[in-house]
């Protein structure tokens, strides 16, 4: 589908959502258990926007509050995000309540997905809460539990970042936004331009298309490092710059770079770490078992990178 058309249709939907905020609406919905029903609601405010969708906070006639995600999609295709959401159910993954459609154009339609509402994202939480290491471990384990559930099903989230980890008032963490998620198949080529740049794995940055769910492991570790450093540890202006930031902290062999087929002009540029990465993380966390897991998660070679099941076996998360 034409991306420009998608963006234009979403702009129209956002404009309509703003103009009808506070007005009661009624929609015939499909519930996740396969039953149908009626949803009477009003839009309170728009709380999030992306390239291909936006999220509104809504209140039902009964007084319940939900998050309503709106996306525009082609009539020819099923929505991969919806397909995945209907197949998963885990306490550390945002729960889909119901969904419905509305006609928009000859080519496409709007899909509305209604989720449980959680006010605080990990991004807000890092700013607002004390950075206690025990709390870091508590939240980290929950995130790994959620990813482990997905990875055992062959599902890769592909966009783990602070704003996609929600934390409720009871410190329960839930992974959200499955717009980039995909069921990965062995030896299948996939789009390597995934995940927000600062959290993108080295293999993705180097253009490797046959990656695994290990890209989520890398992204999650970078997010939790940020919990103590206050900024992305591999913050760069572009792909090359992010790779340089990684190689300044983690030693990488030229053999490994060649294995993942990166550009020769970059292979000729040797970058040596300017600091001991373990010591760098210890200076922020002061917890060796946790640092060991983070270092194992930030292994440049995905084949040597730890997986979710191995992380959950570590005593430091008990």
UniProtKB/TrEMBL annotation:
<protein>
    <submittedName>
        <fullName>CMGC/GSK protein kinase</fullName>
    </submittedName>
</protein>
<dbReference type="InterPro" id="IPR050591">
    <property type="entry name" value="GSK-3"/>
</dbReference>
<dbReference type="GO" id="GO:0005524">
    <property type="term" value="F:ATP binding"/>
</dbReference>
<dbReference type="GO" id="GO:0030154">
    <property type="term" value="P:cell differentiation"/>
</dbReference>
<keyword id="KW-0067">ATP-binding</keyword>
<feature type="binding site">
    <location>
        <position position="69"/>
    </location>
    <ligand>
        <name>ATP</name>
    </ligand>
</feature>
<dbReference type="Pfam" id="PF00069">
    <property type="entry name" value="Pkinase"/>
</dbReference>
<dbReference type="InterPro" id="IPR000719">
    <property type="entry name" value="Prot_kinase_dom"/>
</dbReference>
<feature type="domain" description="Protein kinase">
    <location>
        <begin position="41"/>
        <end position="317"/>
    </location>
</feature>
<dbReference type="InterPro" id="IPR008271">
    <property type="entry name" value="Ser/Thr_kinase_AS"/>
</dbReference>
<dbReference type="InterPro" id="IPR017441">
    <property type="entry name" value="Protein_kinase_ATP_BS"/>
</dbReference>
<keyword id="KW-0808">Transferase</keyword>
<keyword id="KW-0547">Nucleotide-binding</keyword>
<dbReference type="GO" id="GO:0004674">
    <property type="term" value="F:protein serine/threonine kinase activity"/>
</dbReference>
<keyword id="KW-0418">Kinase</keyword>
<dbReference type="InterPro" id="IPR011009">
    <property type="entry name" value="Kinase-like_dom_sf"/>
</dbReference>
<dbReference type="GO" id="GO:0007165">
    <property type="term" value="P:signal transduction"/>
</dbReference>
<comment type="similarity">
    <text>Belongs to the protein kinase superfamily. CMGC Ser/Thr protein kinase family. GSK-3 subfamily.</text>
</comment>
<dbReference type="GO" id="GO:0005737">
    <property type="term" value="C:cytoplasm"/>
</dbReference>
<keyword id="KW-0539">Nucleus</keyword>
<keyword id="KW-0723">Serine/threonine-protein kinase</keyword>
<dbReference type="GO" id="GO:0005634">
    <property type="term" value="C:nucleus"/>
</dbReference>
